[in-house]
Amino acid sequence: MKKEEYKKIKGIRVLYVSGGILLIACLLFALTCYGVDRVSSRYYELNDVVDMYLLSEQEIRDLEKTSDFLTDQARRFAATMDRQYMDAYFEKRNEAYCPEEMIEEIAERQRQGSDIDAGYLKKMLSRSDQLMQSEIHSMKLIAVTQGFEELPSEVEEYELPQWELWADKSQQLERANSLVYNQAYINIKSRTDARFETALGSITNEAKKRERESSEVLNHALRQQRASIFLLFTFIVIIFVLIIILVLNPIAHFVMRIKDEQPLEMIGSYELKYLADTYNRMYEINTASKAILQHQAEHDALTDLLNRQAFEQLKCYLSTIKKPLALLIVDLDYFKTINDANGHMVGDQALKRLAELLLDGFRTNDYLIWVGGDEFVVVMLDVTEEEKEIIAHKIDAINKSLSQPADGLPAMSVSVGAAFSSEGYYRELYEHADSALYRTKENGRCGCSFYDERIDGSDGT
């Protein structure tokens, strides 16, 4: 566009109008993001602390439940001398019960802010170990009296006092029961349970305290953010209204005009008016040359038929429609010999002659394509296998015309392979037609063959 014509276009410049508002909105947005990030950081920090306490609470409850389970199994074993209780005891102890690791984790969290005393937790673990030593001691005595073999390693390695080994069986059993039922065992168990409850109470109180602190901090910060967000929202609405008036409505109008292939009206902001003026100039040029460019892109200059590129696009389109069609591959027989014997100019004339016969012989709504070399393709829509004779008759008529030399061309013929589809184009359709073409050539050329699964399918095509 010339400079003088450029100056004639007048209108509101969106860049200038929205620039100031957008700058303010960006500043508010940055402040809001900063506030949200600060609140989020505080929230996640406190939330992690609460989660840490809750995890410790769950672990202590797990320790307590496991301790109760082990005590129960040890006492059942002492009462019944049924080995399944001993096996259950050590299965739980060895596979799921890792008190040392849990205590270390809880102690580590204590160093991160918990008011739980690590030494207190370790004393709790020490009490639990005393219980287990009594329980294993009891199991060892019962295992000796009952002659159990293949004992758990903890029981196997436990060494009984010499005086217990000298005692008779009844005394050993009485000693085994005493170890898990006497007052000393009960006192240790009671103190252990009390320590569990004390630790749980401390963790619960600390978690509630931290939750209250978190709630107060977040509520205060969120009130501040609401004001910033409301102000930001107001500026966003202003920008949005301006965009609708100056940009979106004109663009929607432009889209409709472009869909209808019409020039654009000079409406909207200065930038859109400039765009519309530029588009209208291009529209005039494109409209004048569109038909020529499209024909050149889709058709072969020699035969004036659709070219290979158009065929690839056509296949994509035909694969989306579910209509019956027939695909024919047409080969000009001995085309290389014609080229070699008569020259390329005669070869070109032979291709043009075949193209003319195809145009005359097939319907105007059939697609005629020159793929390249001596190969042509015909796609016939709304055609089924019931029309084989019609297709064969067309090919016979073409071969009859080609067999009669004219315009300096030698006698010629075509070989054709055809395949049908009931639901549009699919990838194997071309291979099926090619298989039928191969059969035509095998049978002497100059004819038409139709794909037959029983015949052509046996070779894997």
Layout of secondary structure:
Layout lengths: L2 H6 L5 H67 L2 H13 L3 H13 L6 H29 L6 H5 L4 H5 L2 H13 L1 H77 L10 H29 L9 H11 L6 E8 L2 H8 L1 H18 L5 E6 L2 E7 L6 H15 L11 E8 L5 H16 L4 E4 L2 H4 L5
Parallel strand pairs: 4-5
Antiparallel strand pairs: 1-3, 1-4, 2-3
Q: What does this 3D model show about the protein?
A:
By secondary structure, the protein is an alpha+beta fold. The chain has 16 helices and five strands. The chain has a five-stranded mixed beta sheet, with helices on both faces. Strand 4 (414-421), helix 15 (427-442) and strand 5 (447-450) form a beta-alpha-beta unit. Helix 2 packs parallel to helix 5, helix 5 crosses helix 9 and helix 12 (335-342) packs across helix 13. The longest helix is centred in the middle third of the chain and has 77 residues, at 183-259.
| Averaged pLDDT | 80
| Rg over C-alpha atoms, rounded to the nearest angstrom | 46 Å
Low-confidence segments, given as residue ranges, are none
Number of helices: 16
Order of helices and strands: HHHHHHHHHHHEHHEEHEHEH
Q: Per DSSP, what share of the residues sits in E-state strands of 2 or more residues?
A: 5-15%
> What level of helicity do the residues show?
over 70%
User: Care to count the β-strands?
Assistant: 5
Shape field: elongated
Distance between termini? 59 Å
Quickly give the structural class.
alpha+beta
* Number of domain modules: 2
Main sheet strand line-up: 2-3-1-4-5
Largest sheet: 5 strands, mixed
